[in-house]
Design goal:
The structure is a homodimer. Helix content of chain A is about 65%, strand content about 0%. Chain A has 5 helices and no strands. At the A-B interface, helix 1, helix 4 and helix 5 of A face helix 1, helix 4 and helix 5 of B.
């Protein structure tokens, strides 16, 4: 697994969040409302700038009606 | 998904880490060596006391020769 770089999981999460939002046709603002996180913070996650915590990954998974495994799945 | 409580993902991660360590027959000390994290911190994650970050989940997944999706998979 040496092709991983330090932020590979951030890239995977960001991509899966964008895909899932598109599937649900919802905005970052809607996810912010559902999670209680700010839209700016969510935007930072989707731009791989944030080292998000597990508790917040759980909030995001619930808001996106998916699972942690799906959010970290390499599609 | 209302049967989730605030730390469900911590429970899932902790369980999968313990299972994976047992499968590999390695100690928390060995995972500490592989990740650069402390054994005490890893112990805290496995006792659901730590809100671990995504970058550290990646280090743990690599050390346990598994994936993020597997670590958050509900077995």
């Amino acid at each position: 697994m040496d092709q991983f770089h330090a932020h590979t999981f951030r890239k995977i999460l960001a991509r899966n969040m964008r895909i899932r939002r598109a599937e649900l046709d919802i905005t970052q603002e809607e996810v912010a409302l559902r999670t209680g996180l700010t839209q700016a913070y969510l935007s930072g996650i989707e731009r791989e700038k944030r080292n998000v915590t597990l508790d917040n990954i759980q909030k995001i998974a619930l808001a996106l009606e998916t699972t942690g495994a799906e959010l970290l799945n390499i599609r």
